[in-house]
């Protein structure tokens, strides 16, 4: 880890810390010289002799598990208007990564962000969706980055650990550029952007769905995705001191149409987006599936009047791809209850990143 995932202070600003429950030094970053060499030269606490297992940032107090040890880390910011589906996507993505993906690739997902982050994740994401059967509640609480390590067994990647840092944010922080720059430094520190759009942010699907039975459910998000995209681009440029619009932004962007379950009735019979993801059939990704879905999503967005949006994405980012997914797999009820969570293609964007980052192969 090069920097603190929460405040982006350089890693040298973090110190090892004891986490033994009854130790007086627990939770306090030690100076490097204070850590004593224990068995196998593993550092131990000068006060109680326990193995030191966490690293704590001296600037903000964020703790990361030492066992994370991942050299490569994908850090991803989820960007999208309030209600576009960020929190539901984050929750189901992590669940599927540990579940279906893990089984297929012999991989396991470990939280590496200390107890505080873990309990925030449980409370805000996992418990509502997977235990109480309601959608992830909206929150104004500032959410810590969620840090994980994906450790591969299997054949190809055995022993390889990929760090994952995910930044969710309350939609409100995207309302103005000033607010964005205060809260979302994560954007230009990220190695990738997931840009989420609820189809109803485009007028055509909004009208089509408005006519149907779904009228009473969650208020439509009307924010224009292009405005948010341009604000995001501007902020990243400012953060990276890349003022000239002719230079493309280095991080890949995955544009994700969310809640595709609501669009299924309107899709072509031969739609790829309506098919289950082909990347989870065998431990090998499908390049054809990526390109078919990318093409289909682009043409949907184009038919909804988003040609200019697509042009901005292509001209401003070095790497981009378009996805259509449904985190929940169905429409929640009138009290936002969802009894069966059946994600559809929710891992596609992350798998694409892993492919581009040469963690996974296509075949
Ligand atoms: N039909 C459908 N509705 C969804 C889906 N994901 C989210 N929603 C709805 O959209 C609402 C907002 O989602 P949320 O993830 O909280 O959006 P955020 O504000 O961007 O974090 C949820 O409460 C659900 O009602 C989905 O996959 N399908
Ligand atoms: Mg949210
Ligand atoms: Zn920090
Ligand atoms: Zn101790």
Fraction of residues in helices?
25-40%
Work out the number of β strands: 12
**Average pLDDT, to the nearest integer?**
89
Using only C-alpha atoms, the radius of gyration works out to 21 Å
**Which second-level CATH architecture of the largest domain applies?**
3-Layer(aba) Sandwich
Largest sheet, strands/sense/barrel: 7 strands, mixed
Task: Describe what this molecule looks like in 3D.
By secondary structure, this protein is an alpha/beta fold. Helices cover 30% and strands 16% of the residues. It folds into 2 domains: 58 residues, no CATH class; 285 residues, P-loop containing nucleotide triphosphate hydrolases (Rossmann fold, 3-Layer(aba) Sandwich), CATH 3.40.50.300. It is built from 9 helices and 12 strands. α7 packs across α8. It starts with 13 loop residues before the first strand and ends in a 7-residue tail after the last helix. The structure holds guanosine-5'-diphosphate, magnesium ion and zinc ion (2 copies).
Quick gist of this model?
The protein is an alpha/beta fold. It is built from nine helices and twelve strands. The chain folds into two domains: about 10-70, no CATH class; about 70-355, P-loop containing nucleotide triphosphate hydrolases (Rossmann fold).
Keywords:
single chain, 363 residues, alpha/beta, Rossmann fold, seven-stranded mixed beta sheet, three-stranded antiparallel beta sheet, 9 helices, 12 strands, binds guanosine-5'-diphosphate, binds magnesium ion, binds zinc ion
What is the topology?
Blueprint (H helix, E strand, L loop, with lengths): L13 E4 L18 E2 L5 E2 L9 E4 L5 E3 L6 E8 L6 H20 L1 E5 L2 H19 L13 E7 L8 E7 L9 H7 L2 H4 L2 E6 L5 H9 L13 H15 L13 E5 L29 H17 L3 H10 L3 E5 L23 H9 L7
Parallel strand pairs: 6-9, 6-10, 10-11, 11-12
Antiparallel strand pairs: 1-4, 2-3, 4-5, 7-8, 8-9
Bound molecules: guanosine-5'-diphosphate, magnesium ion and zinc ion (2 copies).
The site of guanosine-5'-diphosphate (GDP) has 23 residues, from helix 1.
């Amino acid at each position: 880890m090069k920097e603190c995932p929460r405040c982006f202070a350089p890693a040298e600003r973090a110190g090892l810390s004891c986490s033994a429950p009854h130790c007086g030094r627990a939770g306090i970053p030690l100076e490097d010289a204070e850590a004593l060499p224990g068995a196998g030269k593993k550092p131990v606490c000068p006060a109680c002799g326990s193995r030191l297992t966490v690293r704590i940032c001296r600037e903000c107090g964020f703790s990361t598990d030492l066992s994370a040890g991942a050299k490569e880390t994908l850090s991803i910011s989820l960007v999208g208007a309030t209600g576009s589906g960020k929190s539901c996507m984050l929750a189901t993505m992590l669940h599927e990564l540990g579940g279906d993906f893990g089984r297929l690739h012999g991989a396991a997902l470990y939280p590496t962000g200390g107890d505080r982050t873990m309990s925030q994740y449980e409370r805000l994401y996992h418990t509502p969706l997977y235990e109480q059967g309601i959608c992830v509640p909206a929150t104004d609480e500032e959410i810590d980055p969620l840090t994980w390590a994906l450790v591969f067994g299997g054949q190809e990647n055995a022993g390889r650990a990929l760090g994952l840092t995910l930044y969710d944010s309350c939609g409100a922080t995207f309302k103005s550029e000033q607010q964005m720059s205060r809260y979302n430094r994560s954007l230009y520190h990220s190695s990738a952007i997931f840009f989420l759009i609820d189809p109803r942010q485009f007028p055509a699907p909004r009208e089509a769905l408005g006519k149907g039975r779904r009228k009473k459910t969650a208020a439509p998000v009307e924010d224009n995705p292009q405005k948010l995209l341009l604000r995001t681009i501007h902020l990243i440029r400012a953060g990276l001191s890349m003022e000239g619009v002719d230079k493309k932004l280095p991080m890949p962007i995955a544009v994700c149409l969310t809640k595709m379950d609501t669009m299924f009735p309107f899709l072509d019979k031969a739609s790829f987006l309506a098919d289950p993801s082909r990347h989870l059939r065998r431990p090998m990704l499908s390049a054809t599936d990526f390109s078919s879905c990318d093409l289909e999503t682009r043409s949907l967005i184009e038919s909804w009047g988003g040609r200019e949006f697509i042009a901005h994405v292509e001209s401003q980012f070095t790497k981009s791809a378009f996805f259509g997914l449904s985190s929940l797999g169905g429409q929640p009820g009138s009290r936002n209850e969802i009894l069966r969570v059946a994600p559809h293609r929710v891992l596609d964007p992350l798998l694409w990143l892993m492919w581009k980052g040469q963690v996974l192969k296509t075949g």
